[in-house]
Amino acid sequence: MAYWLMKSEPDTFGIDHLKKRGTEPWSGVRNYQARNFMRDKMKEGDLAFMYHSSCENPGIYGLMRIATKSYPDPTQFERKSPYYDAGSKREEPRWWLVDVKYQRHLKTPILLTALREHQEKLRGLRLLMRGDRLSVSPVSAEHWNYILSLE
DNA sequence: GCCAACGTTGGC
DNA sequence: GCCAACGTTGGC
Prior knowledge:
There is one protein chain. By secondary structure, this protein is an alpha+beta fold. It has a single domain (3-149), classed as ph1033 like domains (ph1033 like fold), CATH 3.10.590.10. The chain is 23% helix and 29% strand. It is built from 5 helices and 8 strands. It has helices at residues 10-13, 15-21, 32-41, 112-116, 141-149; strands spanning 3-8, 23-25, 47-52, 59-66, 71-72, 96-97, 99-111, 136-139. The strands form 2 sheets. The chain has a 6-stranded mixed β-sheet. The radius of gyration is 15 Å and the shape is globular. The two termini are 21 Å apart. It binds a DNA duplex through residues 7, 9, 30-33, 53-55, 58, 112, 130-133, 135.
């Protein structure tokens, strides 16, 4: 089983929204590297941190389970969607996603500032690497367990 | 294939 | 709102 970190803006869709919805397609990823992780590497049953970005206290707020295999992101074909991509063909979809299922809120959020205090133990965690803005990134089992131990 | 211009992300 | 860092686009 693999572990992941997925970023979302809580004003748009955060862990509270996911709790209400139960399961939700992770739509709107329009970065090739992030897409490749979802399309090629994610497996049903994998676990992911939900990370809140672009907000007052960026950090990890909850846990999710990958609920499906990857499939084409339907929003790329919806003309009125902000994620519409005129260049993507149905026979050869450009953007892929998975469904995520709510697991739980963290007892207390693990903020970015707290993660930074553990740079040594978290060496290689993409979230902490300079300039890395990937919205979907892998987390090693060691990093996953260490981060959860900070809860 | 180079690279300047532009757009986006995301912390602060 | 600013801006650093990175990705994408498109002219040449």
